[in-house]
UniProtKB/TrEMBL annotation, chain A:
Major localization class: membrane
Membrane topology: Multi-pass membrane protein
Keywords, alphabetical: Cell membrane, Membrane, Transmembrane, Transmembrane helix, Transport
Name of the featured protein: Nitrate ABC transporter
GO cellular component: plasma membrane
Localisation: Cell membrane
A biological process from GO: transmembrane transport
Domain ABC transmembrane type-1, residue spans: 198-367
CDD domains cross-referenced by the UniProt entry: TM_PBP2 (cd06261)
SUPFAM superfamilies: MetI-like (SSF161098)
InterPro entries: MetI-like (IPR000515), MetI-like_sf (IPR035906)
TM spans (from-to): 36-55, 67-84, 90-110, 122-143, 182-204, 216-239, 245-266, 308-330, 342-363
Gene3D superfamilies: MetI-like
From TrEMBL, chain B:
Lineage: Bacteria, Pseudomonadati, Pseudomonadota, Alphaproteobacteria, Hyphomicrobiales
GO molecular function annotation: ATP binding; ATP hydrolysis activity
Family, per entry: Belongs to the ABC transporter superfamily.
Pfam families hit by this protein: ABC_tran (PF00005)
Protein's recorded name: Sulfonate ABC transporter ATP-binding lipoprotein
All copies of domain ABC transporter, residue ranges: 13-252
Keyword list, A-Z: ATP-binding, Lipoprotein, Nucleotide-binding, Transport
Length: 379, 273
């Protein structure tokens, strides 16, 4: 059965035709002595792309169309990249035209996959992961194509493949940095900062004089410039992770304080009157009503703080540290023009930050499942 | 202030009084000056009575209930519950209160919501289980123990909140327009169940409503109130039998009482017009 050609497939066909007038897609590097390889590669790229378009047009099952499109678009991309892999700056305009065709097919693939409604839970989870993964992969593919194809200077923007290679070959160094920055400074600072903000919020709630005195001071602390605080903390707590943890404590304390205080105020008069009719005491009302009700606010602070803590610890390491740590590595490798290492640390920090945030968000879902934002619109 | 027929002679022979208010008044201090919410209320409610408070909004019926519950403090007069001050009565958990909305905590299942007062009052686990099962059966919610409030209909939620108010076995039940937000059919059904529950448990019930049929159908006594300032304009003894099927609402006797309530309400209104 033939459907109307999807617009992505149609444009891809036109791009492939246009690219034929721009051959070759890439300049042949001087060292290359077998032009037949380039032709074979070109035929493979065209073959995969046309197969993908064919599958999109003629196949019946949505799932299989998605799978075949996924494979064809990305295999074509892989072979396309072999054309420019020997040297930087080999790509000619035709290369980008064909890459655009690959990208359109990947787009079509995501469109088809998004329309799927898998019955099993596992299927839904895989789908929820694979769609953003294809998106992210194409950001990297285009980045790679631009940096390699145009021969952009390494110092300005290294291609992702070079960053990845650096990451793999410096795993031991990066692991030591992560251990120093994340598992010592960030984790300790985050736990202490969040816990003290939470306790301060409860004290401020229990004793009105604390609320009047503590909240303005908390406000003041949050306004302190981190750049100024970090060197002072280094002087107070030494070069090791303790001074970074102190910076993280200062950064995370206030969001937790303010959010928890706000959360403790969300209960309705009726809910509080109910506790009063049971002659419940302050702590009973706190633990059975006000803290559970404040849960969404507390988790909000935990999520905000998960990223703040990472930033705080990395920046604080710019102001004195033993010769290990993510911030230390970034600042020294920039000085040595090893930007691939800088990017590798940034990538690791981004991944760990996302995992941290995602972990907190998962716990939030489990704990505040009852909140209207999580219960699928049921009143 | 002219019609304080608060202690009809034939109702007070043997039953001990649960609530007695004398010269009760409450003035709220607001930004627009003082507002008199209650004025010179004299009323005695005896054990086992079902008393409805009816009147237009602003007549002080909810305020009166809140004074009984020690959620508001009176500024004039005296009130005692079982011979105690409202504060003492509240601290001894003398009453269960049902609010206009169910006010179930969404993070607790139905059984955990019913267990809430029991946890606060320190009942043992075994007793908690027994009371949850018993009170949920009383409001026909057996089988819904593990559901969360937001998974139930409005009527079921309000029934769960009644179970919660009953779970610790206070002899006095204060209900503030508990069925006001529910549709007519659910309301009829819940009214019928409430009467059965009252007959079985022999509690004293104070019930605030602004529905005339609801007040007449449920009550042994109807207190008609009028606004500005909130005061009692009429107290009507019901002559209906204790056993009341829903179709009692078509009988001439029922309609006669309803007419008297309506007259009382109208008299209160003509006061401002």
């Amino acid at each position: 059965m033939m459907r109307a050609l999807s617009w992505q497939s149609l444009v891809a066909v036109l791009l492939l035709l246009a690219a034929l007038f721009q051959l070759p897609l890439a300049n042949v590097p001087i060292a290359m002595t077998a032009p037949a390889v380039a032709w074979t590669t070109l035929i493979l790229v065209y073959g995969f792309l046309l197969a993908g378009i064919g599958a999109d047009t003629f196949m019946r099952s949505r799932l299989w169309r998605g799978i075949v499109l996924f494979l064809c678009a990305h295999l074509a991309t892989v072979f396309l990249f072999t054309l420019i892999s020997d040297e930087n700056g080999l790509a000619r305009p035709g290369f980008y035209v064909v890459l655009a065709a690959c990208w359109l097919l990947a787009w079509r693939c995501v469109e088809i996959l998004s329309g799927l409604q898998p019955r099993s839970r596992a299927g839904r989870i895989i789908l929820a992961l694979i769609i953003p993964a294809i998106f992210g992969a194409w950001i990297l593919i285009i980045w790679e194509a631009v940096t390699r194809g145009l021969g952009i200077p390494f110092i300005l923007l290294p291609p992702p493949s070079a960053v990845f290679t650096k990451l793999i070959f410096s795993l031991s160094v990066i692991a030591a940095d992560v251990n120093q920055t994340i598992f010592k400074a960030v984790l300790a600072g985050y736990l202490m900062g969040c816990a003290s903000g939470f306790v301060a919020a409860i004290l401020a709630d229990r004793f009105p004089f604390m609320r009047r005195g503590l909240l303005p001071i908390g406000n003041l602390v949050s306004a302190l410039p981190m750049i100024g605080i970090a060197p002072i903390m280094v002087m107070w707590f030494g070069f090791d992770w303790q001074s970074k943890a102190a910076v993280v404590v200062i950064m995370t304390f206030f969001p937790m304080l303010v959010n928890t205080v706000a959360g403790l105020a969300v209960t309705s008069t009726m809910e509080r009157d109910l506790m009063r009719t049971y002659a419940a005491g302050y702590w009973q009302t706190l633990f059975k009503l006000r803290l559970p009700a404040a849960g969404p606010f507390v988790f909000n602070a935990l999520k905000i703080n998960s990223t703040l803590a990472l930033i705080g610890a990395i920046v604080a390491e710019f102001f004195g540290t033993p010769v290990v740590g993510m911030g230390f590595r970034i600042s020294t490798e920039v000085g040595r023009m090893n930007v691939d290492m800088v990017w590798a640390e940034i990538a690791v920090a981004a991944i760990i930050g996302s995992l941290f945030y995602g972990g907190v968000a998962l716990v939030e879902r489990a704990v505040t499942f009852w909140h209207p934002s999580f219960r699928n619109g049921k009143a | 202030m002219d019609m304080q027929a608060s202690q009809p002679s034939h109702a007070t022979v043997s039953a001990p009084s649960v609530i007695s208010a004398a010269g009760l008044g409450l003035t709220f201090q607001t930004n627009d000056g003082p507002v008199r919410a209650l004025s010179d209320v004299n009323l005695t409610i005896n054990k086992g009575e079902f008393v409805s408070f009816i009147g237009p909004s602003g007549c002080g019926k909810t305020t009166f209930l809140r004074v009984i519950a020690d959620l508001e403090q009176p500024t004039d007069g005296t009130i005692s519950i079982n011979g105690m001050s409202p504060r003492e009565a509240r601290e001894r958990r003398a009453y269960g209160y049902v609010f206009q909305a169910a006010a179930l905590y969404p993070w607790r299942t139905i059984e955990k919501n019913v267990a809430l007062p029991l946890e606060i009052m320190g009942f043992s686990d075994a007793e908690k289980r027994e009371r949850i099962a018993r009170t949920l059966a009383l409001v026909n919610l057996t089988g819904f123990e593990k559901k969360f409030p937001w998974q139930l209909s409005g009527g079921m939620q309000q029934r769960a909140s009644i179970a919660r108010a009953l779970s610790f076995d206070a002899d006095l039940l204060l209900m503030d327009e508990p069925f006001g937000a529910l549709d007519e059919i659910v309301r009829d059904h819940l009214n019928e169940q409430l009467l059965q529950l009252w007959a079985r448990t022999e509690k004293t019930i104070c019930f605030v409503t602004h529905s005339i049929p609801e007040a007449v159908y449920l009550s042994t006594r109807i207190v008609v109130m009028s606004p500005r300032p909130g005061r009692v304009t009429d107290v009507i003894e019901s002559t209906l039998p204790r056993e009341r099927p829903l179709d009692i609402r078509e009988t001439p006797e029922f309609l006669a009482i309803a007419a008297r309530v309506r007259d009382g309400l109208r008299a209160g209104h003509s006061y401002d017009d």
